[in-house]
Amino acid sequence: MRSHEGWGGRDVPPDYESQRRRTGRNWPRRSYLGGLPDPLRDELLHVAAPCQYQSGESLMREGDRSTHVVLLLSGIAKISARLDEGHEALLAIRASGDVVGEMAAMDGKPRSATVTACGAIRAGVVQKNDLHAFFRRHPEAALSMGSVVAERLRWANRRRIEFAGYPVKVRLARVLAELAASHGRPVLQGLVIGVNLSQPELAALAGSAEDTVQKALRALREEGLLTTGHRRISVLDLRRLREIGHLPPGIA
């Protein structure tokens, strides 16, 4: 079994193969790996060089000319980009089963964002040529990748509409409901969002200033919908949070 040591990756444990297969049972169906048929997923993972990243490490950096993709087998990563004034904006969050770096692998242009590990990540790195060969053998896998890219574009478009059409409290409720649905961990009371976000990062996801998001968080706390701590948010009433976010029941 190969180990991947470029781009910040760590050596992998010898039982990588068995860990990889166990993890696959839990990949969401809507993720790229979770949506592939078992034979195609196994073939793609077979050509992936296994690697690990520690919290805070970059999987890839904005402006890099690398063209590989990274398959997230377990763990969570943040997608961010630089702003003109030197700050960073948090664009999205990716989790187990997702693929990152697909755009550079398709068009060969510099990376448009930085991907950073939120905690320990196990992953597989697929080089551009290997990915293209896989797509030539299995056009349906290429279509699935296209669907992933299209859904991300739709999500970005929806977010722009929300920024223009909804007040901050509604936008924040939508963001928190989405995070709770996709990254929530059940506890005695509600769900703990399994992504450690700073208030500036949360403000970036909600498309608002930090002080405005602080006021919206306070309002949601006072309504008994959530509790907050240092980089920790627990959702106590997801149904009500969805209502405030103008989301249909059961959808986040």
Automatic annotation (TrEMBL):
Disordered as annotated region, ranges: 1-32
Annotated SUPFAM superfamilies: cAMP-binding domain-like (SSF51206), Winged helix' DNA-binding domain (SSF46785)
The HTH crp-type domain, residue ranges: 166-239
Domain of life: Bacteria
Keyword Transcription attributed: yes
Keyword terms of this UniProt record: DNA-binding, Transcription, Transcription regulation
Designated name of the protein: Crp/Fnr family transcriptional regulator
